[in-house]
Amino acid sequence: MLFWVLAALLTLIASLAVMLPFLRRRGDRSLGVEHDLAVYRDQLAELEQEVGRGLISKADAAEARAEIGRRILRLRGAGKADSGGAGGRSARAIAAAAVLAVPLVSWGLYAFLGSPGMPALPLQARLTIDPSQASLDELVARAEAHLADNPQDARGWEVLAPIYARLGRYGDAAAAYRRTIALTGPSAAREAALGEALVGEAGGIVTAEAEAGFERALEIDAANPRARFFIAMARAQEGNTAEARAMWEEMAAGLPQDSPWKEVAGQAIAGLTGSGGEVPEEPSEADITAAEEMTPEARQEMVEGMVARLDARLREDPADIEAWRRLLRSYVVLGRRDEAGEALERALAAFGADSKEAETLTEYAETLGVPQGE
């Protein structure tokens, strides 16, 4: 009840504040007219004094009197129209009615369409309502509040972790999986789920930490499809597409027809296959335009991940000239020529500017149109 009293009071204050200029307009305008008339009368008196002292000619004085008279007439006419005219009064009445109609109409619509009788429901009360009637955000908030008070509840962390992942909160999902593993011990499913959360947090890149999680999962269960899939993705992102294809094919062959991972593996294989049916040595235009069964987002994520993984491997081990060729070609295919130029500079620095490898890479870069530094 207190809320509605305060709402009505604030609405009344706001309406009066808007209406006040309309209510005062007539009086303010009248005061302004009287002030201007007094100024013009003073000007006429000063004009007569200047004529008497001979400071202005009679002709100029007559012209000045006429101009001041015209201004006085216009001012009086405007004052009458504003203060006594029906138009001025009606305009103010319409404006006042419009201001008053806004809160009345809005309150009426809310009473008809809204739920004014619904009691207040603060956060603590929402956290205790029937779960079947709560939204996902409310359920997550309830779980977080519970785990804040009971951090040793392993079951709670295990339930919350995949929800975090579905919401795109991969960092929170990884933390929840780590907490679950710390409390209950590792399992293939938990280690693989942790790795997938780390991949999501890295934007689709199978990082070293994520790959370690998948390897731990395979040590527990060598047939775990999630871990096998992402290990193959790691090989593809390194540029070892032939090995990745073989791993995915072996994985798909051993899965039942209704397994969702069998379909995912097939899509991944399609993403590696070029137009001629051979596995390309590098991510090329065919890698991007092929794989019609994959969504554009999934295809782009895979190609970008392969290039990023290859770039990261060459930063650690820059001695592979063929890998440098693949990286340059990949950046050009993706339209990232500036990054291709930076990669070329790193390669030349690794091999030495006067080495045979540097000469070979420079010639190859020229054929690709890669910009070279000084």
TrEMBL record:
<protein>
    <submittedName>
        <fullName>C-type cytochrome biogenesis protein CcmI</fullName>
    </submittedName>
</protein>
<keyword id="KW-0677">Repeat</keyword>
<keyword id="KW-0802">TPR repeat</keyword>
<dbReference type="InterPro" id="IPR017560">
    <property type="entry name" value="Cyt_c_biogenesis_CcmI"/>
</dbReference>
<dbReference type="Pfam" id="PF23914">
    <property type="entry name" value="TPR_CcmH_CycH"/>
</dbReference>
<keyword id="KW-0201">Cytochrome c-type biogenesis</keyword>
<dbReference type="InterPro" id="IPR011990">
    <property type="entry name" value="TPR-like_helical_dom_sf"/>
</dbReference>
<dbReference type="InterPro" id="IPR051263">
    <property type="entry name" value="C-type_cytochrome_biogenesis"/>
</dbReference>
<feature type="domain" description="Cytochrome c-type biogenesis protein H TPR">
    <location>
        <begin position="145"/>
        <end position="260"/>
    </location>
</feature>
<dbReference type="InterPro" id="IPR056413">
    <property type="entry name" value="TPR_CcmH_CycH"/>
</dbReference>
